[in-house]
């Protein structure tokens, strides 16, 4: 019973990480390339490669390649969502009043 509960929790966490990574990848695809350099971040192609790699790592993690690949993917996605995305959105929208 404990094993089933642990497996269910890990599955829910993996699905959340997958959703966040897909969201981040779609967000990065939809942004202008000059917005990334305007906020002094890595270029758009580099972020697309990082997020696509994170998606592959997540898929490898569920296939049994270990938790390390999932942790790498979650960290990469978290950096994009917490640091890059807010600044890109801010520079494209302008100041809020």
UniProtKB/TrEMBL annotation:
The chain crosses the membrane at residues 48-81. InterPro entries: DUF2516. The keyword Membrane applies. Keywords: Membrane, Transmembrane, Transmembrane helix. The keyword Membrane applies. This is DUF2516 family protein.
